[in-house]
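The instructor's notes for this session suggest beginning with a concrete chain rather than abstract definitions. Hand out the sequence below and ask the class to guess, before any prediction is shown, which regions might be ordered.
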Amino acid sequence: MNILIVSQYFWPENFRINDLTQDWVRRGHNVTVLTGIPNYPAGQVFEAYQKNPERFVTYEGARVVRVPMLPRGTGAARLFLNYMSFVVGACLWGPWKLRGVVIDVIFVFEPSPVTVGLPAVLLGWIKQAPVVFWALDLWPETLAAMGVVRSPRVLGWVGRMVRFIYDRCTLVLGQSNGFLESIAKYCSDKRKIRYFPSWAEDVYSEANAIPAPEVAVREDAFNVVFAGNIGEAQDMPAVLDAAERLKNHEGIRWLIVGDGRKSDWVRDEVMRRGLADKFLLLGRFPVERMPSFYAHADALLVSLKKDPVFSMTIPGKVQSYLMAGIPLIGMLDGEGSAVIRNANAGLTCSAGDAAGLAAAVQTMAALSREERRQLGANGRAFAQREFGRKLLMDRLDGLLQEAVTDGEKKKKGR
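After discussion, reveal the predicted structure:
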């Protein structure tokens, strides 16, 4: 198939769509990616891209087409302009840059914002190609949950935009079963909705990884590792509250691998609360380095704020954590928490429950190495069974073919 991926984010930014692109090329598909200028998460254009943008026009055999856009910068206003500038850039320059390119199906990668669907819908109309939309974030619910938008009128406008996009897609995929009900509220044709979760990335299954030299080894330490984006959704205030409750437990150490819009706040709070000797704030590293940091982990932490929309979410890191074969500690509600429990892969507490998180860390630290090893093994077996990469890639190929077949029927019916 000739597949066009529309994604605001792409390599060298670290997103799951990079992995998917590689897989489709290996499977013999002809892949083109329409994306923006790499600037996530710091909000500044990557230095390597600025120096030599020609290095970033192909990726693992896929052609990469980039359109002008404003970097994220800092602040809500700048983020809004970042979102809108990609829509404008992709709608104006995308059709021109993709002229003459044969497209059988368009795949939309949407971790946020949902506006990425607008240029995809336009290109679907121009190219007469079906659009498959993978919803990894729910709009307008997430905007309300994060407090980004409080006006019911504005949320209503966003909802109408979401309906406009979904109704012009051939298939809409939800990353969790909980997503499907929300998607259905904005889909006139419920038959087009499908469940499609994130897969467990193979890199995390690497055994015998050499521990990262950035982390000093302490024989008495119990290391809780948090990896990924540090933003509002991850409820870092509750994480820090839990760490403060465990301040006098000498062995417990928190390793934060990643960055994001709350990174500076976390750094300031760690110092203000006198937790500098308890935290290692390591910054962002490429995905290939993550097994070396996981090699230090006694437990892997996943957290989400308390809100109905987040209870429907399975954070992508859950699948990666499970595949790593290390026990999980989850401070979250709903589907993400259920996955950890169903896998018998660790301990959970309610979202926002700092005391519960502190208790879970203590309980996990008190387990024997063999007991923790068994929890990790349970998680890996569950990930391979439920979120195996080949299993889900085969399913996604089938969904794309379904969309293409549906598109061909509609063309013949005209």
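Then share the key points. The longest helix spans residues 389-413. The longest strand covers residues 30-35.
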